[in-house]
Amino acid sequence: MSMTEREWQEEQQRVDQVVQEIDQQMESLEQQVGEVRADIVDIRKNFWDDVKLNFSDAGEMYETYRSMKQQADVLSEHERNHRLAQTQLKKLQRLRRSPYFGRIDFAEESESSAEQIYLGIGTVLDEEQENFLVYDWRAPVSSLYYDYGPGPAEYETPGGTVAGRIDLKRQYVIRDAEIVSLFDTGVTIGDELLQEVLGKHGDAQMKSIVATIQREQNQIIRDERSKMLVVQGAAGSGKTSAALQRVAYLLYRYRETLSAQQIVLFSPNPMFNSYVSTVLPELGEENMQQTTFQEYLERRLGKMFQVEDPFEQMEYTLTAMNELGYEARVEGIKYKASTRLLTAMEEYLDRLAQGGLIFRAIKFRGEVLIPRERIKELFYGIDDISVFPHRMRALADLLLEELNVKAEEMRNEPWVEEEAELMDKEQYQRAHNRLRKEKRYSENSFDDFARELDVLGEMVVQKYFKPLRRGINQLRFLNLPAVYRQFFLQQKKAGETAHWEEMCAQTVERLEHGKLAYEDATPFLYLKERIEGFQTNTQVRHVFVDEAQDYTEFQFAFLRRLFPHAKMTVLGDLNQSIFAHAQGGDRFAALSELFEEGETKRIVLRRSYRSTREIIEFASGLIEGGDEIEPFNRHGSKPTLTQAADEQDLAAKVAARIRDLQEAGHQTVAVICKTAEESRAAYERLKGAVDVRLIGMETGGFEAGVIVIPSYLAKGMEFDAVLLYNTSQERYGRESERKLFYTACTRAMHELHLFTVGTVSEFLAGVESGSYERLT
Ligand SMILES: Nc1ncnc2c1ncn2[C@@H]1O[C@H](COP(=O)(O)OP(=O)(O)OP(=O)(O)O)[C@@H](O)[C@H]1O
């Protein structure tokens, strides 16, 4: 539908009016901010003048304290207002540039005339503070815009459902207060606008999608009922985008009670954190907390072990297939990810309750003070067979008592007396004072001297025992690595396992070297927590897990326990299950068991927005069920496959393609290699010919330009153009590498180019030969 000249003018006039109002509000806010700032400076300057300082007696002191506290309170209240005003000011600045992006004319059932509802990233009220010039996109009424086209429509409010009719749905692109484009749309939010948004070049930062949120995404964003929201979404279907918009929505919906600190996003790697970090600030919201599961494991276990990270494990599974013990390790990775291990471990814990825990002797100056057997005896002698953590605490108390007895005995040992004699004057004085206070001095100076020595001896022993006591309080007498090891020494073969003994032996050996493999980290931590007591986080209200296909069932069970008061939003794509532990089956099904029946909701996203139709059609041939993925109708050139003669030819051809892509104006170009090893080699070959950056685990940030990156690190991100460095059968031949290959292809927005030396991967057999172009 085309817009008449007059309509356009009228719309621009309205923009002008709103901008005027925003200007006024900004002006008065700025003035307010200025005043508050002046006040703050003033208070700070006069802080000590305004409080009455008087410390002469208790009453006065209290007065002084009160007056100081009052001043401090006034100051912090002012500072809070200042911060709020400044946030508001920033939001208005953004709104001034682009006050809204959508409009619906909605007539409630009972009324004949429609109200015009404009949607932007924040609320703008008119001068009287009565009418909404712009509604926040998260307001209840705004969901109409995302859920319906013209015709009957309804939305939920806290007070109930409001039904009516949409007469018009219009979209705007406004830049610097000028309407750039304007169109009316049907049910789905304008393909035109989406086309425009998606056709753009990518940059190093993820964008907000408020203006074009799709109906099925809106369901995810606004869900308030589910305790567990599970999203299975195709590559590029907007899972991460929806998750971030959902955070913004929750912060708005529960603004009185929920803060950004109470929301945690688990992301795949630190680089990803930087990639998504601008989305929320762009919407005028504070960022939620971001972490990786590895970061958590490190924090909990890093002092005890050298903990392997998931990408090291990945690199091993992708490169070490010819090494001894490879199969056993991969088998172990799968077993240790499963709830079979969880069950076996629970049984083990039941056995441990009766006997078999392993302790460390408490040693002092190289000698055993309390032997292991004694600790064991004490532990299993505790009558109360309640839960482990309580028994541990009781044991610690018994050991502390035992330690006191030892201290008593030790007091008169020669080394103690020697140390006591070496004590300085001050310490002597303290011993003296103590005896006086306790009225233990007699008239006999010889006895008194002995007593003094006794007290000094006690002081010496106590000083030396301090670390022991601390250790006992931290339950360091428990030998957890040995307890974990023992499990693998005793555990009988579980199910279909061809390399059981070898896997167990490997596990035991690694632990003996102070190493904890990634697959062992969560089970180990679980065992530790079950025995010592779970450390939970009761502050967090919402946990988001992105790239959820990478997590094990075991890890989910763990997260659930770690955040007992949180709702969970779990987003992933089973077709991108690239870890060895994650092959096959609907692994999200088990998630519903973490909560009560009816508390879990599943949403499936089939539409893919990232890549052109040509790229999706190519990539979906690589996986089973790929035909269920619906490409968004945006066209580009067909993917290409270039045959290279050898490694040198390969690098030359890749470099030439990179130059072409840069000339065509692509900002972000990724050369994706299978492994870190291959990435390094490719980088060495390319760096002389083109300006490239090598990305590894330790890379924290993400910038525009050309990068060389291992496949598993590129996960979750997107690039204007993707070049797959070497897609030979040798590199991508094992069935377990299929999803890795697919994941790499789906990182491309506009162009996808494959290169190969020798026979190309068999995975391409599933792809229609017409869907890509062969080059030499
Ligand atoms: N409603 C939308 N409007 C505009 N762009 C969208 C929309 N939904 C998704 N996109 C765009 O599609 C691309 C892919 O989105 P996103 O990274 O969130 O997908 P994903 O499902 O997390 O992908 P993957 O599983 O491959 O990591 C991004 O560029 C995003 O901006």
TrEMBL record:
**Top-rank taxon, per record:** Bacteria
Write the record's keywords in alphabetical order, separated by commas.
Answer: ATP-binding, Coiled coil, Helicase, Hydrolase, Nucleotide-binding
Annotated ranges, domain UvrD-like helicase ATP-binding: 212-612
PROSITE patterns recorded:
UVRD_HELICASE_ATP_BIND
The residues listed in the UniProt record as binding ATP, with positions renumbered to this chain, are 233-240
Determine if Nucleotide-binding is one of this entry's keywords: yes
What InterPro entries has UniProt attached to this entry?
DNA_helicase_UvrD/REP, HelD_bacillota, P-loop_NTPase, UvrD-like_ATP-bd, UvrD-like_helicase_C
Does the record bear Cytoplasm in its keywords?
A: no
Q: Which Pfam family is one of those matched by this entry? A: UvrD-helicase
Q: Which residues form a coiled coil?
A: 12-46
- Which NCBIfam families has this protein been placed in? HelD_BACSU
For this entry, the protein name equals AAA family ATPase
Lineage of origin: Bacteria, Bacillati, Bacillota, Bacilli, Bacillales
